[in-house]
Design a protein that fits this description.
This is Subtilase family protein. This protein is an alpha/beta fold. 25% of the residues lie in helices and 27% in strands. The protein folds into two domains: 10-82, Peptidase S8 propeptide/proteinase inhibitor I9 (Alpha-Beta Plaits, 2-Layer Sandwich); 86-403, 3-Layer(aba) Sandwich (Rossmann fold), CATH 3.40.50. It is built from ten helices and 24 strands. The strands form seven sheets. Strands 7, 8, 9, 11, 13, 14, 15 and 18 form an eight-stranded mixed β-sheet that branches. A four-stranded antiparallel β-sheet has the order 2-3-1-4, sandwiched between helices. Strands 10-5-12 form a three-stranded antiparallel β-sheet. The longest helix is centred in the middle third of the chain and has 18 residues, at 203-220.
């Protein structure tokens, strides 16, 4: 006879055996009848958080007794604890252009092409996006914001990660006379806030957020999805859920970009999502001349393939500042952000290298909206330069924007 306990993950079994909690936040994988199962959970006075139809999964908070009952249903195939993913660590320094009287190259990279990302939407599953003037004037380009943490209707960011990356991709430089602006300064932004103010997010929220991007890809012309976080595990069940969803979103014409991770390069540094297929992984460089890998940028061999797929700049990247204490609404009505004395900042984080390639992908998709991820990958490889850190070591590619094969601005 089949042992029903095989449907429960080992860690969850241990928690239930030791009566650690009265209820558990879990992911429930079903083979069929997903909506019916969700209704049964709700009728049992347990809470359904998300129904993730594209991978037949339910995120719920349920009691140990009901978890055991769920295993008796033939349509339930597996139940595991919902775990956390983390935004990558970063350092930040505010920048005052007036006080420092410094010359800054336009966001470390110069876009001399006639393309600017217009008509292309870049999606984020991150910490939200602060409505910085460079993203909202003269056009309001944060076209959709979904908050899975505090359920606000209007966009905000109480951590910073999403805003920093948005500036690198799509800041238009209106507050700096175009001195500091993004790679695709007219692209639109779609934000799913699945991470809290500490940069932590549940896998269930993240998977649901990715499903929202998939469902809205056609309506909002989403062509690029940034996932600037890491999930440090070898949990095959969770990784299979991600892979199933990645395969579907890539088939819908969306290019996925994520960091290789922040592990030191000792044994098995490539973990979690970065080890999966159908995703472009990016590592960070603390120096371009000479090339130097960032101390907390993972690099190595995974599934017999060198990872990351590309390297990009991640040190002293100029981007948009924010007010982390901004509350976007009161009593259901929108509030407006106050004036920022320092509209820009300088950050160091491996995820900024992802934003660098997110901007490149937006330009390529504007050039040809029919490009699939495999086309984007091929074009970036064609324009890449191989970097060698030590003589005889493995070479990793970097794409300099000037080397892209795209129409240039007319003099």
């Amino acid at each position: 006879m089949f042992n029903l306990k095989n449907k429960i993950s080992p860690n969850l079994q241990i928690c239930m055996k030791n009566c650690i909690y009265g209820k558990y936040r879990v992911l429930i994988k079903c083979t069929s009848l997903l909506e019916n199962m969700a209704k049964k959970i709700q009728r049992s006075k347990n809470e359904v958080l998300h129904i993730i139809n594209d991978i037949n999964c339910i995120c719920a908070i349920v009691s140990p007794r009901y978890i055991e009952r769920l295993t008796e249903y033939p349509e339930v195939s597996y139940i595991t604890l919902d775990s956390y993913a983390m935004s990558l660590p970063l350092t930040k320094e505010s920048v005052s252009l007036e006080e420092q009287n410094i010359y800054i190259r336009p966001l470390n990279v110069k876009n001399d092409f006639s393309l600017n990302g217009k008509g292309i939407t870049v999606a984020f599953v991150s910490t939200g996006i602060y409505p910085n003037k460079d993203l909202t004037s003269p056009e309001y380009r944060i076209i959709k914001s979904v908050d899975l943490i505090n359920k606000y209707t209007y966009t905000y960011d109480d951590n910073g990660m999403g805003t920093y990356l948005s500036g690198i991709i799509g800041g238009n430089g209106i507050s700096s006379n175009s001195l500091i602006r993004g790679i695709a300064p007219r692209c639109n932004l779609y934000s799913v806030k699945a991470f809290d103010s500490n940069g932590k997010g549940f896998i269930g929220d993240i998977l649901y957020g990715i499903q929202l991007v998939l469902n809205h890809a056609l309506e909002y012309k989403i062509k690029v999805l940034l996932l600037p976080f890491e999930e440090l595990s070898f949990d095959n069940f969770l990784l299979d859920l991600f892979q199933e969803l990645f395969d579907k979103i890539v088939a819908a014409g969306v290019t996925i970009i994520a960091p290789a991770g922040s592990n030191r390069n000792t044994c098995n540094p490539i973990l979690g999502m970065a080890s999966l297929k159908n995703i472009i992984t990016v590592g960070g460089l603390s120096s371009l001349h000479p090339p130097k890998l960032h101390e907390f940028s993972s690099i190595g061999v995974c599934r017999k393939k060198n990872k990351p797929d590309f390297l990009g700049p991640c040190n002293n990247m100029y981007t948009l500042n924010l007010n982390r204490n901004f509350i976007p609404e009161r009593e259901g009505k929108a509030t407006y952000p106050s004036y920022l004395h320092e509209n820009y900042c300088k950050i160091c984080c491996v995820s900024t290298a992802c934003a660098y390639y997110g901007g490149i992908c937006a330009l390529l998709c504007e050039y040809c909206s029919e490009f699939a991820q495999k086309d984007i990958l091929s074009l970036m490889k064609l324009a890449s330069t191989q970097l060698e850190f030590e003589e005889g070591s493995i070479k990793y590619p970097i794409v300099y924007i000037k080397d892209l094969i795209l129409p240039k601005l007319k003099n």
